[in-house]
Amino acid sequence: MKPFVYDRIHTEWKEWMEEQGEPAFRADQVMDWLYRKRVPRFDEWSNLSHGLRERLADSFNLHALETITSQQSADGTVKFLFQLHDGHAIETVIMRHQYGNSVCVTTQVGCRIGCTFCASTLGGLKRNLTAGEIVAQVVEAQRYLDQAGERVRSVVIMGIGEPFENYDATVRFIRIINDPLGLKIGQRHITVSTSGIVPSIHRFADEGLQVGLAISLHAPNQELRKRLMPVSRRYPLEELLEACHGYEEKTGRRLTYEYALIGGKNDQPEHAHELGQLLTGSGSLVNLIPVNYVPERNYTRTPRNQIFRFQRILESYQVKATVRREHGSDIDAACGQLRAKHMNTERQSS
Ligand code: SF4
């Protein structure tokens, strides 16, 4: 298997060009073809010599993703199901916001974290994606938006997988899409979401990055969190919050806490009061998310009025809370749904 073009950062292209006896500016030209012109054929990279184009084609693979299917919602959300070179399927979503287009990327094929409200973990972890396989999702999303003359403004690393279980590829991905010669996505427009892998939060704080961090909290106390998120047995809530404060101090960036409301489990007024007490004075934002229906778990959704009551209770503790807008409710937009459907169809036909 040849290495994949999108796995390489700019300096590695420079090194490769040097090895080939080519001037360093050729690396800039490669970046230009990959990220600005987005031409998916080496033989059309017309400002490179024929010989160099052939050497590139002999040494690298330009295609990581084949589109199996895509669905477009009435609200503009687009969901892609991509096939990787080894046959695994992953999901990528474009969401339309007033402030611009955001792309949600996947970092792993499946997930081993085991959050009880999540469909993506049901089949376990198959493998990590490479940085280039994550970059290619954004490039494909940008190609789709090119048709309408639009661009990707922000990226959320919140699709299938736990990004900090694929740490090196995630950080490399951030550096590639942030590169001024790459897709030029500003660091402040990139958000990583983690279930709370404490050592990686510490490590991430030292990367010198200015990206947003979102913590999947989903419970106001350790007992309940352990039941909903087995990861909390390894990294208890108290340790997690300490790591979060450390991250905020080092980076000067406020965190967001994600809280999926699950009917009767964590959505009662007493949970809101406990969460308010836990986060009061932190200055952090809580993002309330109506949980996605997962048939295997039999979880129910919290009614809208109850969500707003939960929000008001948090605000009474001066904790800022927003209710996440739902995207693509008329398509299989919940994380893992489209992939799960595809896997079921594959199973039935084999
Ligand atoms: S919510 Fe994220 S970390 Fe938890 S099981 Fe699902 S994909 Fe994994």
Automatic annotation (TrEMBL):
Keywords: 4Fe-4S, Cytoplasm, Disulfide bond, Iron, Iron-sulfur, Metal-binding, Methyltransferase, rRNA processing, S-adenosyl-L-methionine, Transferase, tRNA processing
Binding site for [4Fe-4S] cluster: 111, 115, 118
A single GO BP: methylation
Subcellular compartments: Cytoplasm
GO MF annotation, one: methyltransferase activity
Binding residues for S-adenosyl-L-methionine: 161-162, 193, 216-218, 292
Cofactor annotation comment: Binds 1 [4Fe-4S] cluster. The cluster is coordinated with 3 cysteines and an exchangeable S-adenosyl-L-methionine.
Pfam families, per the entry: Radical_SAM, RlmN_N
InterPro entries: Aldolase_TIM, Methyltransferase_A, RlmN_N, RNA_MTrfase_RlmN, rRNA_lsu_MTrfase_RlmN/Cfr, rSAM, rSAM_sf
Catalytic residues, chain numbering: 91, 335
The EC number(s) this enzyme carries: 2.1.1.192
CDD domains (UniProt xref): Radical_SAM
Catalytic activity: adenosine(2503) in 23S rRNA + 2 reduced [2Fe-2S]-[ferredoxin] + 2 S-adenosyl-L-methionine = 2-methyladenosine(2503) in 23S rRNA + 5'-deoxyadenosine + L-methionine + 2 oxidized [2Fe-2S]-[ferredoxin] + S-adenosyl-L-homocysteine; adenosine(37) in tRNA + 2 reduced [2Fe-2S]-[ferredoxin] + 2 S-adenosyl-L-methionine = 2-methyladenosine(37) in tRNA + 5'-deoxyadenosine + L-methionine + 2 oxidized [2Fe-2S]-[ferredoxin] + S-adenosyl-L-homocysteine
Domain Radical SAM core: 97-330
Cofactor: [4Fe-4S] cluster
Function: Specifically methylates position 2 of adenine 2503 in 23S rRNA and position 2 of adenine 37 in tRNAs.
Misc. remarks from the entry: Reaction proceeds by a ping-pong mechanism involving intermediate methylation of a conserved cysteine residue.
Family: Belongs to the radical SAM superfamily. RlmN family.
Protein name, as recorded: Probable dual-specificity RNA methyltransferase RlmN
Gene name of this polypeptide: rlmN
